[in-house]
């Protein structure tokens, strides 16, 4: 509000300065030099007032900015205060000893589960693993003996037997 009042005051002074300058010219034209000097002194004084009001407006604007910034700082500080209180409450609920205990229990549970998994999966010892590898090597190195293939050509027709009871059934002959 003060800033606005000072700006209105500046406008009035500026208008007065213009009027007095015009009046001083007119007085000089009329030959009234002393009255013109008096008006110019008054004008000079008003210009100094104008400069002072400009400084005051500047000071007021700076103060307004400082106040606004301080309000922002207060909100930040209030937020920090609330956050700090929250952290303190959380620290009361969870102590370092409690966290270390929970981490230790978790590690123990993971180790216990690993042991159970090993038992259920029937995991082998290193000796068992070595024995299995030796057996695998022995099997792969063995020579597998295959039966010999006959060198004589196979007969094209199967000789038929004369008695009926030794005669193969037609469906078996067709299948072979």
TrEMBL record:
State the GO CC annotations: ESCRT III complex; multivesicular body
An example GO biological process term is: vesicle budding from membrane
Q: Where in the cell is it found?
A: Endosome membrane
Output the InterPro entries linked to this UniProt entry.
Snf7_fam
Entry keyword Zinc-finger: no
Q: Does the keyword Transport apply?
A: yes
Coiled-coil regions listed in the entry: 28-70
Keyword annotations for this protein?
Answer: Coiled coil, Endosome, Membrane, Protein transport, Transport
- List every stretch annotated Disordered: 143-176
Q: Which family does it belong to?
A: Belongs to the SNF7 family.
Q: Which PANTHER family match?
A: CHARGED MULTIVESICULAR BODY PROTEIN, CHARGED MULTIVESICULAR BODY PROTEIN 6
Q: What is this protein called?
A: CHMP6 protein
Instruction: Tell me which species this is from.
Output: Eurystomus gularis
Highest lineage ranks of the organism?
Eukaryota, Metazoa, Chordata, Craniata, Vertebrata
Q: Which gene encodes it?
A: Chmp6
């Amino acid at each position: 509000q003060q800033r606005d009042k000072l700006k209105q005051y500046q406008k009035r002074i500026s208008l007065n300065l213009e009027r007095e300058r015009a009046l001083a010219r007119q007085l000089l034209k009329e030959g009234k030099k002393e009255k013109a000097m008096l008006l110019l002194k008054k004008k000079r004084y008003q210009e100094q007032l104008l400069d002072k009001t400009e400084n005051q407006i500047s000071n007021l604007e700076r103060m307004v900015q400082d106040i606004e910034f301080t309000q922002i700082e207060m909100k930040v500080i209030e937020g920090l205060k609330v956050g700090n209180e929250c952290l303190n409450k959380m620290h009361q609920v969870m102590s370092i000893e409690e966290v270390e205990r929970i981490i230790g229990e978790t590690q123990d549970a993971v180790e216990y589960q690993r042991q159970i998994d090993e038992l259920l999966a029937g995991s082998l010892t290193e000796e068992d693993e070595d024995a299995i590898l030796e057996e695998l090597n022995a099997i792969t190195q063995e020579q597998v003996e295959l039966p010999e293939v006959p060198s004589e050509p196979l007969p094209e027709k199967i000789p038929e037997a004369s008695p009926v009871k030794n005669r193969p059934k037609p469906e078996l002959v067709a299948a072979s």
